[in-house]
Write a structure and sequence with these properties.
By secondary structure, this protein is an all-alpha fold. It contains two helices and no strands. Helix 1 (14-30) runs antiparallel to helix 2.
């Protein structure tokens, strides 16, 4: 018996979803006291933002190096 993979059709681009996730994580980090949990959340926000920028760069027609 084969399992069918469920396909999700996203309305927003990957870049937009990653940027939104980064913004959500930054807002959530503001409510946390300084410490390890807050730093971890900010690190995840930076990773999501970097992923968004890399994906946008890879999709660009000229593939210019990032500034």
């Amino acid at each position: 018996m084969t399992t069918m993979r469920r396909r999700i059709k996203h309305e927003d681009s990957l870049e937009a979803r990653l940027a939104a996730e980064a913004e959500r994580l930054r807002e959530e980090a503001k409510s946390l006291p300084p410490g390890a949990a807050r730093e971890e959340m900010l690190r995840k926000a930076r990773q999501a933002e970097t992923g968004s920028q890399m994906s946008e760069w890879l999709r660009s027609p000229g593939l210019q190096p990032p500034n």
